[in-house]
Amino acid sequence: MNLHSPPELIALYSRAGAAKTRFAPHKMLLLGMLAGFFISAGAVAASTASHCASDAASVRLISGMVFPFGLAMVILTGAELFTGNCLISISVLDGQASWRGMLRNWLFVYAGNFIGSVLTAAACAFSGQFDYSGGALGAFVIKTAAAKCALSFLDGFVLGILCNLLVCAGVLLSLSAKDTAGRILGAFAPVAAFVIAGYEHCIANMYYVPAGIFAASVPQYAQKALAAGVDLTPLSWSAFARTLVPVTLGNIAGGVILGSVLWLCFARAD
To answer: pTM above 0.90?
Structure first.
């Protein structure tokens, strides 16, 4: 078959996840920056394609069809994405990696993802990329960021869990395929679902919220957002930090839950 079975898939990821924990710090950081850029590029494309849609359903649908290519690029290039690496819990449960190694990977990859995402946000905000539709794209980016900053801790945590159940499913589905087209499609479907549903992804938010903050510092975009009735009050770096924490914790929980359930079902000796 052109597909790994679930037991084969879990064994395959167990070995791959263990290898990730042995990367040198500079490699994890650089590959994390690359993944931050790829996820941000998907977010940039999704916002650009959907910002003139007339209703929320169309925005979600268009974004869902575009955003997943970011994860596909991460997987096919071997970049390191924090949310997907929550599946290293499989390697730990399988005895092929240590908790310390997993946490070390998470730390450097998370930092790299943050750097890559924020640099992409700044590049877009200050290079005129948000000038589309007379600055309407900039206003749309600000509106998106303000909404994310207004999330409660509980909402961010729960939406983070739901998101990473799907993102990690996408990572595993991609790994289950034995050809490039299958790997892209495996990553595409679950991520499209999370975007359409409006779940929260901490690395995507590392682009979305800083992009909104940077855009709000550009008078053209800020004026356009205010004219559209966007409340800029929730938009700040401190609010970003407050909402990033629960989403990150939720993403960790979602990835570990999925990895643990699949390991228990397909790898653990009965």
So the answer is: yes
